[in-house]
Design goal:
The complex is a heterotrimer. By secondary structure, chain A is of the alpha/beta class. Chain A is built from 18 helices and 14 strands. In chain A, helix 17 runs antiparallel to helix 18. Helices cover about 65% and strands about 0% of the residues of chain B. Chain B contains 15 helices and no strands. By secondary structure, chain C is an all-alpha fold. In chain C, a hairpin with a 7-residue loop joins strand 1 and strand 2. Chain C has 14 helices and 2 strands, in the order αααββααααααααααα. The chains are: A alpha/beta, B mainly alpha, C mainly alpha. Chains in contact: A-B, A-C, B-C. Chains B and C meet through helix 1, helix 2, helix 5, helix 6 and helix 7 of B and helix 1, helix 3, helix 5, helix 6 and helix 7 of C.
């Protein structure tokens, strides 16, 4: 390399670096004197859905730009953290209950009560999730954005071929001893490689072609079982926390929980359900469209947010039914409500609150939720969402019935969510892999006591 | 490397029986073919998936051809598809300003490469061709950086970049790796150690200064390894993920690899847009592949340098 | 690492002072301004080292004695983190997982690279072949992991499909506790095989043909020549490949983060993954720093041991 070339390269490098600095600073200062409200979400579909609200909001507030940014869920919280540290976090962001305590205790979230009071914002408009976003100091830190629950999705052709009708799925009963009509259905829908059904003699559980139901152990990073075992255990009356919000112990040693876990491990051993790893790698939960689309699963307990995709799955006719009824005849489902939280370091608290409260209004929720990718926390918006999706042939009434029938249990906020996940998930996985037996449950309860009460 | 072009003497056992291929040779060819197949097949699979309709993928997972052929995934990854179009094929409908991110990646990788290779060459010269007290000690201390786990320095570096207010542009992205790379210094020093002294001493006789020798003799003689190193650095910078994830908060400095993360699984249990992801992967790797097409022989030959010199 | 190549580089114009003194009377004048210029030339590198390696590492050492949750000031806790480390079963487990991963990556990575290089050397000097084999080196770890996750997907992955059709077995790869680490190692070997093979290939090219001719005259068989001549002569390059693979494998992170995230049941929880989880997940940066330091000490020890080993095997062309 000649000196001249070297010099030229150096000059070019310097020029690059300078433009870089310049463009960096330029963008940081905002363009044209207007104000930008930054809002983040990890959900790509909601990012698209809320863009409609952003457009409307900008129209009402000339000079204001709402910038929606999405990061995938593995990067999202790392990115938020770096934003907190660097003082570049978004003004407001979608948040998960699991992180409420961490962020609130580190003073990264703005308490909303003064803003709510000042603007006369009516919290009673939300039917689900308000209490999930109260921190242990009694303050409200987030507005519920959506709620999610679970339902039974099934391959309708398989169901009919097995001699069942969608109406049968509406009234499935379950108990941890013999599995009730739920297990009868699942066993009958399971087919081995030679076409023998799970409830027939000669069924080969080692070579299953179609599983009656998807994996029911811990999936991906989920130690809460929201779309697997949790509704079943809850239908027995079991509740995860020893108190309401901010529990000091997860009651994993409760006989009802132990019975549920043992039941699902047996169901897997019988060959009616696959193991967690059979449909995906350990780090990620399998998606319903993958499971039902591959036609290797007859019934799949999935999240409400999957309805839009699953019920429109090309080539496979999918139906949706409610969750099982427990021995007392009741259904129970935990509703997970994500929240809209404001970063305490925002430069524009008033304007950000306006945006956040606008997002929490029927005016925004109604058009946004028409995409059918989430269920809004405002009942009137749910209605319009259900109607809009019905027009596309997607029946969301199952979820609406859950809400109206009072089957929804709040997803209680708790401390040290990430640490709990790191410590409890491997234990549950060990149980389902038969590496451990019932002795794992007292240990899980003990771990939860330690972590739920640990001070950061 | 010149020796690599001289034909290699084959052992008599093989050379003597060249007409009838020895079983060992057949076996060796078979092995090589298998290795090549295993190496190249995933790239074909990326292409095949990228040209499929995402929603149809589960229905024929073992089809060797694209399932329900479509350019849709590429349109999504290039930000050309409309939202409705994207969602109909199992995409998210998020839009992407690919040209901008491509530009960012080029700037990031180029500046980083030019800076760190220049600084490394200067340092390597000092360690290889100059005599001064404490040289080996300083060199060994610098080398210890090879063993420092990235995660140990990540956070303090991040805080430092914040403190100098460089989080929103290229400066913060580039700065930590701009001046020093233990591997680069080590590699160039090893090469320069092997250079002959004759030319250098002749220049000294002519009264040339050390700096002049560096620019006029050592650098030109090291052109090949410097080119190698530049390519390696460029490739590595292009593929960097975690540091840009932490540092780049601004669209105007966000590299392509990071921006294409949109296609990774977005929320737990949502169906990943495999087709879009694979198309994005291919687009991100395309500049590297182009570089490779252009300088293939050079890269292959010069990687050899990293070993023998 | 410096020593490995340093020692054998002491050839013409090398750094070995003894040899240089032996050459034509050392013109001390030549090196008169050297020190000043040297410091000038290494200033950027040293500055970069101090600011972005030494200083943060020192901060890391400090953090390891504190309770540090990043957004609130660090609080001095003395040896509490180190005490926790000693009693943290998960840490020792993840250390074991890491060592297992390193062992698999190094053994299979180096053996396969060597075999591939030798086969290429015997069969073809085609740049195209070497180019193709180098392809995986061009793509990032994240992309590599994503692609293999897709191909090894237990249901939709083409590899699983083929294996099931051919053998009737249904391997779970990343999803099976026993197979998670070997699968990760295989992916890592896939990515680095070509690069290492090309390195070794270049090394093979430097072995003078006369060596083999002599061997043949002595009536050595091909296997004998490989064992007695090729491997010893390649030793410096093999050592370099081994050292780089070991240091790299100990720090494996991105492929684990994308595929298994340490699961199932912590079966693939490599050290960096655990450190990341503690630091960026639980914000326990004090303890994460402690573990990073432990990893650093370990790497220094391993590298030092390898240097000793490499020096012991200095046979080369002499």
């Amino acid at each position: 390399m000649t000196t001249r070339l070297r010099r030229r390269l150096a000059a070019a490098a310097a020029a690059f670096a300078c433009t870089a600095v310049a463009s960096g600073c330029g963008a940081g200062a905002g363009s044209g004197g207007g104000t930008t409200v930054n809002w983040w979400t990890w959900d790509d579909k909601q990012a698209v859905a809320y863009q409609e609200c952003a457009d409307a909001f900008e129209k009402q507030h000339p000079g204001v730009t709402v910038k929606i940014t999405q990061y995938d869920s593995t990067d999202y919280f790392t990115k938020l953290l770096s934003g907190f540290v660097a003082d570049t976090a978004p003004d407001a962001f979608m948040n998960s209950v699991q992180y409420l305590q961490q962020y609130a205790s580190l003073k990264q979230l703005m308490p909303l009560d003064p803003l709510i009071r000042k603007s006369g914002f009516d919290m009673s408009r939300f039917s689900v999730g308000v209490n999930d976003w109260k921190y242990s100091d009694g303050q409200q830190y987030g507005l519920p954005m959506d709620w999610a629950s679970a339902a039974m999705y099934y391959n309708e052709d398989m169901l009919r071929k097995a001699g069942y009708t969608p109406a049968d799925v509406e009234h499935l009963t379950w108990n941890p001893k013999d599995g009730g009509t739920f297990e009868k259905l699942v066993a009958h829908l399971t087919v081995d490689r030679r076409g023998v059904r799970g409830d027939q003699a000669g069924f080969d559980k080692r070579h299953v072609a179609v599983y009656g139901i998807g994996a029911m152990g811990p999936l991906g990073q989920d130690f809460n079982g929201l779309t697997t075992w949790r509704p079943f255990a809850s239908s027995l009356g079991w509740r995860i926390g020893n108190t309401g919000n901010w529990p000091t112990e997860f009651t994993y040693d409760d006989p009802r929980f132990v019975a549920t876990m043992n039941y699902f491990r047996r169901l897997t051993d019988k060959g009616f359900a696959p193991t967690a790893g059979q449909f995906t790698s350990a780090g990620n939960a399998p998606s319903g469209s993958q499971l039902l689309g591959s036609r290797k699963i007859a019934v799949y307990e999935g999240g409400s947010w999957e309805a839009g995709t699953l019920l429109k799955l090309p080539g496979t006719k999918v139906g949706v039914g409610p969750l099982v009824q427990g021995p007392t005849g009741r259904r129970a489902e935990v509703s997970n409500a994500n929240g809209n939280t404001i970063w305490s370091g925002t430069r524009h608290p008033e304007l950000t609150w306006e945006w956040v409260s606008y997002m929490g209004s029927a005016a925004c929720q109604t058009p946004a939720s028409r995409t059918g990718t989430f269920l809004p926390s405002i009942p009137s918006a749910v209605n319009s969402s259900v109607r809009a999706m019905a027009g596309q042939g997607v029946d969301l009434s199952v979820f609406q019935a859950q809400e109206q029938g009072g089957q929804l249990l709040p997803n209680i906020p708790y401390a040290n969510g990430t640490a709990l996940q790191g410590s409890l998930l491997p234990l549950l996985q060990q149980f389902f892999a038969h590496d451990r037996d019932d002795d794992v449950f007292p240990q899980m309860a003990k771990e939860s006591r330690k972590l739920l009460t640990a001070q950061q | 490397m010149t020796s690599a072009t001289t034909p290699l003497p084959r052992p008599a056992a093989i050379a003597g029986r060249r007409r009838r291929p020895a079983p060992g040779r057949v076996l060796a060819w078979a092995y090589l073919v298998v290795v090549l197949a295993v190496t190249v097949f995933p790239f074909y699979w990326i292409l095949r998936t990228a040209l499929s309709n995402n929603l149809q993928l589960p229905s024929s997972p073992s089809s060797l051809l694209p399932v329900d052929f479509t350019w849709g995934a590429f349109e999504r990854a290039l930000g050309l598809a409309s939202r409705a179009q994207a969602q109909a094929q199992g995409g998210s409908g998020a839009s992407l300003d690919t040209p901008l991110y491509l530009r960012n990646s080029i700037i990031y990788a180029t500046v980083q490469t030019v800076l760190v290779v220049s600084c490394s060459a200067a340092a390597a010269y000092a360690f290889a061709r100059l005599r001064w007290r404490g040289r080996d000690a300083v060199f060994n201390v610098l080398l210890s950086a090879l063993m420092v786990p990235t995660i140990l320095t990540l956070l303090p570096n991040f805080v430092f970049i914040r403190d100098v207010h460089q989080l929103n542009g290229f400066t913060g992205l580039i700065l930590p790796g701009a001046f020093f790379s233990a591997f680069n210094v080590f590699f160039l020093r090893q090469f320069m150690l092997g250079l002959s002294r004759e030319t250098e001493e002749a220049a000294i006789m002519d009264g040339a200064g050390r700096l002049r020798i560096f620019f006029r003799i050592t650098l030109p003689m090291s052109a090949a390894p410097i080119a190698t190193l530049s390519l390696l650095t460029f490739i590595n910078t292009w593929n960097e993920y975690f540091w840009p994830l932490l540092v780049s908060n601004n669209d105007h400095a966000r590299p392509l690899t990071l921006a294409l993360g949109v296609f990774k699984q977005s929320s737990p249990q949502a169906a990943p847009d495999w087709a879009g992801l694979m198309a994005a992967t291919l687009i991100a790797a395309l500049p590297m592949l182009a570089l490779f097409m252009a300088f293939g022989r050079r890269i292959v030959d010069s990687i050899g340098f990293t070993g023998i010199k | 690492m410096a020593q490995i190549v340093n020692d054998r580089q002491a050839g013409p114009g090398g750094a070995a002072p003894g040899r240089r003194r032996g050459r034509s009377a050392p013109p001390a004048v030549h090196h008169r301004g050297d020190a000043r210029l040297a410091w000038l030339l290494i200033t950027p590198a040293v500055a970069g080292f101090l600011v972005f390696f030494a200083y943060p590492a020192a901060r890391g050492v400090y953090y390891s004695f504190t309770s540090f949750h990043i957004l609130v000031p660090a609080r001095w806790v003395g040896l509490a983190n180190w005490d926790e480390l000693l009693h943290d079963g998960v840490f020792w487990h993840s250390l074991g997982v890491t060592v297992y991963f390193v062992a698999l990556s190094v053994v299979f990575g180096v053996l396969l690279s060597l075999l591939t290089a030798v086969v290429m050397h015997r069969l073809t000097r085609s740049t195209v072949v070497r180019g193709l084999i180098l392809l995986p080196f061009l793509i990032s770890g994240v992309v590599t992991a994503l692609v293999w996750q897709w191909m090894l997907d237990p249901q939709l992955g083409i590899v699983s499909q083929v294996i099931e059709k051919v053998t009737g077995l249904h391997p779970l790869f990343f999803g099976d506790g026993a197979w998670a680490v070997p699968s990760l190692a295989a992916v890592s070997v896939w990515k680095s095989l070509g690069y290492n093979a090309v390195l070794i290939f270049a090394g093979l090219g430097t072995i003078p043909p006369t060596v083999y001719e002599a061997g043949r005259l002595d009536g050595a068989s091909e296997m004998q020549m490989f064992r007695r001549l090729t491997v010893p002569l390649l030793r410096p390059i093999l050592v370099m490949v081994v050292v780089l693979t070991v240091v790299g494998s100990f720090q494996v992170f991105d492929i684990v983060q994308v595929t298994t995230q340490g699961g199932p049941a912590n079966a693939s929880l490599v050290l960096q993954m655990y450190i990341y989880r503690k630091g960026f997940g639980e914000l326990d940066f004090g303890y994460a720093s402690t573990m990073s330091l432990a990893l650093f000490v370990l790497l220094v020890a391993v590298t030092y041991a390898q240097m000793r080993l490499a020096r012991a095997g200095e046979s080369d062309l002499s």
